[in-house]
Design a protein that fits this description.
- The complex is a heterodimer of chains A (about 600) and B (about 160).
- With about 600 residues, chain A is α/β, with parallel strands linked by helices.
- Helix content of chain A is about 40%, strand content about 15%.
- In chain A, helix 7 packs antiparallel against helix 8 and helix 17 packs antiparallel against helix 21.
- Chain A is globular and about 90 Å long.
- Chain B is elongated, with a radius of gyration of 18 Å.
- Chain B is built from seven helices and four strands.
- In chain B, strands 2-1-3-4 form a four-stranded mixed sheet, with helices on one face.
- In chain B, strand 3 and strand 4 form a beta hairpin.
- Chain B starts with 10 loop residues before the first helix and ends in a 7-residue tail after the last helix.
- The interface between A and B is large, with 58 and 42 residues.
- The complex binds flavin mononucleotide, iron/sulfur cluster (2 copies) and FE2/S2 (inorganic) cluster (FES) (2 copies).
- The site of one iron/sulfur cluster (SF4) has 13 residues of chain A, from helix 23.
């Protein structure tokens, strides 16, 4: 491979594309040409570097300098100052949220320094469209290794020994699943990758597919060899067009390089992949629904057993794993089960990727060893809560999960500890909420989501969640009664035990978890008809502070309902009966005399 | 001639559809990929397209209809030139996506699910487009806009207004 004096990594992840990284990339190519640096400096378009809200972001090696919010107009300066004169461009450096101090180097920024990247090992580092870059970082080495040196049983043993558990939600031991599928009788078997990523607020699978698609392809081929399958499917959600495109490209390249197709790497093992694009149904993330969807049917779940390992796609034994689970496989084969076990906790070895979002300074993707505490993730990697607000809760497990509060901040996170805290790992979405988020409203939000996404096949889920949602809406409108809490809990238990699939069974979790941790907030809505976080509009009142009001009358003129009255130069007054809470008066008052309480 | 007449679409569009159908004929699980392509070709999936797909793939029309109504991505109504999808995923919701929806409804004078009178925009909500770090987020076609506030909406829309070919 050609040697360059410097590498410029321009993030080409979906986040940075939306903030204009393509133009930055083009400008780099042009400027480098204009300065005759083509032989010295190599520009690489990578997948998501992880700090999407600072985009477009770039990294310059060998020094490892990280620049944020780079615009095309900054490029000339970076080329002339940094690449030619060796001087760092200070104004584009990362700033520490707490102190405002600048940190030039990637590996000194807490957000990156505290990570341990296994599943994301290549994401943000290589160009996902160039298979040679993957190969240069030991890509397809694991596939070669298993095909020439391991029996399928040895591959399965290695994965079992590693203790890897499914990253798609439930944490089922991956090696065991592979073994079940291998042992299931059947002439034809399939390997399926679940890239439906339904948890709203999680985007690690997207990032892996966009930033390092070959790691998933390689792992699926290894899985095919281990379980005895020659055909695989990747089921990607329709909302991820870029992931589909990069994966398509990678599959073609892999075929051209003999890593997919007939007689892979000259052995007698053959394996090929097809992509199937979802069509906007959350329930299709559930494995039996997903298989129905690949078969071209309505994506409705069916009872288990039989599990897909014995009766999956078209009734054949089928191995189904999540994207992140697969991305770990080549690293485990290359470095050994022992190495993997040393990372993370005893029961949950390895790392987990979290999508850090919501009210936190550094949003983005972080991969940390299992057992890292919530405090480390939110306050060290995440840089704490913006605008000096107070941390209130972190939601994990999406619509199936629950919230963690201050008292959980120092718990090491793994599958078990999250369950014990009344939440779950889920796919790794971690949404941080501050004092301005109302937990009753959040519970309502999740229930509305599951209600919307319920496939309607079973009554507890279809009707039960609807009843629960109605009660929650009542509470947020100030029409709740104290017995509503009991009613919610009762309904929740019934739905949990009687719904057909995981969607229904876990739908009540966000409600139960918020009632458990924020009972007072529910009671404030019910008894005092107040929303302490000032979110539930029906419970808020606009009022005029008579000390601040100068009697200018602007609010009265602007109010669409003529709900404000008064005499010039004297404090005005709002007629609450007539007020529709549009907020116009608050916006227009030049003296900030109107407030929402 | 009534609105629903079969002359709505060109022979070329049907030809394209037939080619897609031929690709998937006899292959199991081809219905959803064919519908995806059909929606790209026609913009939506009206009855006559459903019939063509059912006959081409040799599946009952009721099954085609059942699949289309199950998946929110498939539409039986024509959509505007651009579909706006406001993300109402968790990350966007806690960062005020509901206000973005309100601002759009006001600006475009439509409700969610409707198309503007001039046929420019259809307003939809989506559940997470995977750009949660930039919440709140909306998509227009394949473009993603992040870190939104209600007052940025008119500026974003302006890029698409009056761009009809
Ligand atoms: C309602 C529902 C939605 C799910 N969504 C996803 C998803 O988006 N991605 C995923 O990998 N698994 C999802 N799962 C879990 C899958 O059913 C399955 O357990 C998983 O794909 C297995 O892979 P793993 O063992 O590698 O985790 C979902 C489950 C339920 C009940
Ligand atoms: S605009 Fe403000 S100061 Fe003037 S009357 Fe209204 S509340 Fe009072
Ligand atoms: S919130 Fe709207 S309706 Fe109510 S008083 Fe103010 S301007 Fe009038
Ligand atoms: S997309 Fe660029 S950092 Fe995530
Ligand atoms: S929640 Fe809106 S992009 Fe993920």
């Amino acid at each position: 491979m050609k040697l360059y004096r410097a590498h410029v990594l321009v993030c080409g992840g979906a986040g940075c594309i939306s903030t204009g990284c393509k133009a930055v990339l083009d400008r780099f190519t042009n400027e480098i040409k204009a300065h005759n640096l083509e032989e010295e400096v190599h520009v690489v378009e990578t997948g998501c570097i992880g700090t999407c809200d600072l985009g477009p972001v770039i990294l310059i090696y060998p020094e490892g300098v990280f620049y944020k919010e780079v615009s095309p107009d900054d490029v000339q300066e970076i080329v002339e100052e940094h690449l030619i004169k060796g001087r760092i461009v200070n104004r584009l450096l990362y700033e520490q949220p707490a102190s405002g101090g600048q940190i030039p180097y990637y590996d000194e920024i807490d957000f990156f320094r505290k990570q341990k990247r296994i599943a994301l090992r290549n994401v943000g580092i290589i160009n996902p469209e160039v298979i040679e870059e993957y190969i240069a970082r030991d890509g397809y080495f694991a596939l070669g290794k298993v095909l020439t040196k391991y029996t399928p049983e040895q591959v399965i043993q290695e994965i079992k020994d590693s203790g890897l558990r499914g990253r798609g939600g439930a944490g089922f031991p991956t090696g065991m699943k592979w073994e079940f599928t291998r042992k299931a009788p059947g002439d034809k078997k399939y390997v399926v990758c679940n890239a439906d990523e339904g948890d709203p607020g999680a985007f690690m699978d997207r990032s892996i597919l966009e930033g390092d698609p070959h790691s998933v392809i390689e792992a699926m081929a290894i899985a095919g060899y281990a379980v005895g399958a020659n055909q695989g499917f990747v089921y990607v959600r329709a909302e991820y067009p870029l992931a589909v495109q990069r994966l398509e490209n990678a599959i073609e390249k892999a075929r051209a390089f003999g890593m997919l197709g007939k007689n892979i790497l000259g052995t007698d093992f053959s394996f090929d992949l097809e992509i199937r694009v979802g069509a906007g149904a959350f329930v299709c993330g559930e494995e039996t629904a997903l298989l129905a969807s690949i078969e071209g049917k309505r994506g409705e779940p069916r009872p288990k057993p039989p599990f897909p390992a014995s009766q999956g796609l078209w009734g054949k034994p089928t191995l189904i794993n999540n994207v992140e689970t697969f991305a770990n496989i080549p690293a485990i084969i290359n470095n050994g089960a022992e190495w993997f076990r040393q990372i993370g906790t005893e029961k949950s070895p390895g790392t987990k990727v979290f999508a850090l979002a919501g009210k936190v300074n550094n949003t983005g993707l972080v991969e940390v060893p299992m057992g890292t505490t919530l405090r480390e993730i939110i306050f060290e990697l995440g840089g704490g809560i913006p605008n000096h607000k107070r941390f209130k809760a972190a939601q994990t497990g999406g619509p199936s999960g629950g919230c963690l509060t201050e008292k959980h901040l120092d718990e090491p996170i793994d599958y078990e500890s999250l369950l014990a805290a009344g939440s779950m790992m889920g796919s790794g979405g971690l949404i941080v909420m501050d004092e301005d988020n109302c937990m009753v409203d959040v519970a309502r939000f999740f229930l509305e989501f599951t209600q919307d996404e319920s496939c309607g096949k079973c009554t507890p889920c279809r009707i039960g969640t609807k009843r629960m949602l109605e009660i929650l809406i009542r509470i947020t409108q100030g029409k709740g009664e104290e017995k509503d809490l009991e009613l919610l809990e009762e309904l929740a238990q019934t739905i949990k035990v009687s719904a057909l699939c995981g969607l229904g069974q876990s739908a009540p979790n966000p409600v139960l978890s918020t009632i458990q941790n924020f009972r007072d907030e529910y009671l404030a809505h019910i008894r005092d008809k107040k929303c302490p976080a000032k979110v539930c509009r029906a419970l808020l009142q606009y009022s005029i502070n008579s000390e601040l009001c100068r009697g200018c009358g602007i609010c009265a003129r602007e109010c669409p309902e003529k709900a404000i009255s008064g005499e010039p130069k004297k404090p005005y007054h709002i007629n609450q009966e007539a007020c529709i809470k549009c907020g116009v008066c608050l916006e227009k008052c030049p003296f900030d005399a109107i407030s929402l309480t | 001639m009534t609105e629903t007449c079969c002359q709505r679409f060109s022979e070329k569009q049907y030809q394209e559809l037939d080619e897609v159908i031929a690709q998937y004929q006899g292959k199991p699980g081809g219905l959803i990929p064919v519908l995806h392509r059909a929606q790209l070709i026609f913009g939506y999936l009206p009855k006559e397209v459903q019939i063509r797909v059912a006959e081409g793939l040799n599946v009952p029309l009721s099954e085609v209809y059942g699949v289309i109504t199950f998946y929110s991505f498939f539409s039986q109504q024509p959509r505007g030139r651009y579909t706006i999808g406001v993300c109402l995923g968790t990350a966007c919701y806690v960062k005020g996506a509901a206000e973005i929806v309100e601002a759009l409804e006001e600006e475009l004078e439509v409700k969610v699910g409707e198309t503007t009178a001039n046929g420019d925009f259809t307003l939809m909500v989506t559940r997470c487009v995977g750009a949660c770090g930039l919440a709140p987020v909306l998509t227009i076609g394949e473009d993603v806009y992040g870190r939104l506030t209600a007052d940025k909406i008119p500026e974003v829309l302006k890029r698409y207004q009056g761009t009809a070919e």
